[in-house]
């Protein structure tokens, strides 16, 4: 409820901060909750697809959950990639998320046009 990733989380965090700072979740706890949310979404979609294998909207939801998990695995906002990988292993879903993760790993980050670098030092 007081998560950065939950609707109205800022309001809940503000109230909890006034009452007792210990009520505010740590960044790693928030990450775990977010991963659990996407694991649940994946699981629900997978269950529905067992009965309705041609349901495209559900296939898209499953793929979105995999993409979200892959992004969190590649660049978690807290914790570490190893921690996210551990959670995927515990859910026995690393093999499902790995293709999405590998797609992200194959993409080069864009070069910055600010700061140092060829574009910033061209003298034009």
Describe the secondary structure blueprint for this structure.
Elements: H1 9-19, H2 27-51, H3 56-74, H4 81-90, H5 94-105
- Beta content comes to under 5%
Rg calc: 19 Å
- The share of residues in helices is 55-70%
The number of helical segments is 5
Query: From the helix content, strand content and strand pairing, which structural class follows?
Result: mainly alpha
Amino-to-carboxy terminus distance: 51 Å
Would you mind describing this structure in some detail?
This protein has 124 residues and is an all-alpha fold. It has a domain at 26-105. The protein has helices at 9-19, 27-51, 56-74, 81-90, 94-105. Helix 2 (27-51) runs antiparallel to helix 3 (56-74) and helix 3 (56-74) crosses helix 5 (94-105). The chain starts with 8 loop residues before the first helix and ends in a 19-residue tail after the last helix. Mean pLDDT is 85; it is low at 117-124.
Quick take:
62% of the residues lie in helices and 0% in strands.
Kindly list the characteristics that best describe this protein:
single chain, 124 residues, mainly alpha, globular
